[in-house]
Amino acid sequence: MNVRNLSIPIYCDGFYLVSLKGTIKAMSQRNASLSLKVHKRSNEPILHVKVTEEVVDSVTVSEMQFKDKVYLEANRDANYKDLKLGLFLLTPRLDCLLDEDKM
């Protein structure tokens, strides 16, 4: 999958395993809450993580459709180390567009 305009475009209808893993630390304000949200479309949250420790390890399943876009948003500045957003198609690839139709 390619990142375009700070988002990941979805080309296949189906169910996706969405994972967010890594190390993160808020840059300022001790004891202030830090939250990460993974969205699809413009404002539908898929995964919302309130960071209470430095390690993030969350997984969920979400149904997505062609032309959805997935992106990550943080509510404040933080240092990210090895933070990975994973999308894994769980549905058979029969619902995928051909490569030449993706553009």
UniProtKB/TrEMBL annotation:
A single Gene Ontology CC term: extracellular space
Cleaved signal peptide residues: none
Classification via Gene3D superfamilies: 2.60.120.40
GO biological process, one term: positive regulation of cytokine production
Any one Gene Ontology molecular-function term assigned to this protein's record: tumor necrosis factor receptor superfamily binding
Name recorded for this polypeptide: Tumor necrosis factor superfamily member 4
Species whose genome carries this gene: Chelydra serpentina
